[in-house]
Amino acid sequence: MKHKENIQPAFESFLERHRLFIWKLCNRYADGDPDVGLDYVQDISVLLWLRFGKLRKGVLPQQEQKWIHYIARDYFRSHSRHNKITLESYVEESLFVTEPENPSEILAEYLVCLTPPECDIINLYIQGFKVREVAQLLNISLSSTQRHLHNAIVHMREYAQKIENQM
Q: pLDDT by residue (tens digit) across 100-125?
C-alpha cells in the first residue's frame, strides 16, 4: 500500500488535469443523465487509479487522454455486455417466490443471507466489474474473491430454498 500512497498526489494532479475530459466522456455514454454520468466518472476514476502505475511518466496530455479513452472504452464495452443480461437470467426462476417488480428489490432481499465480504463482492460484480477487478478493488486475492463469489451464490440458493420450503 506504500506505493499507492506515494503516487496519490500525482494521481490527484492527473485527475484534475483531465477532469473535464473524463466528465464529457462519461456523460456522453450516460445519454445526458448526470447521475449516471457521475457513477461512470467514479467507476472510471477507480479503474484509472488501479492502472495509474502503468502509465509512463512524462507523456503528453494528449497521450494521457488517449490512455483514459482506452480504459473508458473497455469499461463501457464490458458494462454494456454485462447489462444486456438481466439479473433474472443469472438466477434460476425457482429462486423467486413472487414475480419481481424490480431486480434490485430481489437482490436486496437475498443480500441478508450473505457475509459482509460476500455482500461487497456481489455488489461490485453485479455493477459490472470483472472478478479480477473486484479482487483489486477490495485488495484481496483472486482465489479468495472467486471463493466468496461462489459461496455467495450458494448461500443465496440455500436462502431461496429455505423461503420456498416455508411456503
A: 455 555 566 677 778 888 888 887 88
What's this model's pTM, rounded to 2 decimal places?
Answer: 0.47
Cell 419481481 maps to which residue? Answer: 100
Domain 87-166 class in CATH: mainly alpha
Residue 30 contacts residue 76 (beta carbons within 8 Å): no
Domain ranges of the chain: 2-84, 87-166
CATH 3.40.50.261 fits 2-84, yes or no: no
Q: Which of 94, 95, 134 is nearest to 118 (CA)?
A: 134
- 36-92 residue pLDDT tens: 888 888 888 888 888 888 887 778 888 888 888 888 887 877 766 555 433 333 333
CA distance between the termini of the chain? 49
Residues 38, 30: Cα–Cα separation, whole Å: 9
Distance CA 96, CA 88 (A): 9
